Amino acid sequence: MRVLGLESSCDETAAAIVDDGRVVLADIVASQHEVHAKYGGVVPELASRAHILNVVPVVRAALERAGCSLAEIDGISVTNAPGLSGPLLVGLQTAKAMAWVTGKPLVGVHHLEGHMAAVYLEPDPPPMPHLALVVSGGHTSLVRVNDHAEVVELGATRDDAAGEAFDKGAKLLGLGYPGGVMIDKLAQTGDPTAVRFPKAMTAASTGAEFSFSGLKTSLLHHVRAHGIPEGQALADLCASYQAAIVEVLVRKTRRIAQRERLAHVQVCGGVAANSGLRAGLRAAGAEDGFRVYIPPPARCTDNAAMIAAAGYHRLLRGERAGLDLDAVPSLALPRPG
Fold it and tell me: For the whole prediction, is pTM greater than 0.85?
């Protein structure tokens, strides 16, 4: 089954063609980093306008690279939740228009389900069931993946996500947008023990929940007291800040993997590209005996191949969405019970 995927939930306009949920024939992404860089974050109205300009050229480029026509597509998969309402609607309306014109089946995909499907595009995907640590700009969750399209969120952040902590921290330090990449780069030459930062909700009693707002506030107070450092001192500060985020993510993941008796753990979302997190989880897996699966960095950030892969499994199950499929800007994953 050949699926066309569309992703436009935030600031990436993406289209991909994937065969049988495994083979990527084309994966085109139009980034908006230059549009939002001077504002230090995503401006929803500007993102929507950029999606309108980019979506048709991106779809055409994906079809051309895959060497197929729209008529040769077997199904259409689109992100319809969660995300920014304007950007979501651009991709959704485009997908519905193509489904209406071609008569091809349409299915909506939860953005986080898409991130969890990215690892299935790799040669050696994790077996079912397994644990997923989903870490992106707006989401931090631990999810039990029982099967394709059958997931249960065991816990999530109560305030800022890990990605927000990185981006807001970078903005505070004047590192630009997207800031997580810059913090990671500087952290690689810094001392992670140079500055002590709080690590919230790490006790076993807090379960699979996270909190990063206090960490961000702690960095703010540090900068107000000492100013923004330069050179090695800046690298040390970034390394310490990153280490605090990574420690919480790793500690929670290994504890929940043990609790759920899961020997396979995947990490996905934009923050999964962070070198410290990748190394920390692999080290924890080696100590605890669980195997870690992480997509390559290009598949950690928003892309449409993951949406096509997730949609494939829903289409395979016989799911179909009508042309009344709507955008849902805020939609949590299913919780236990």
Answer: yes
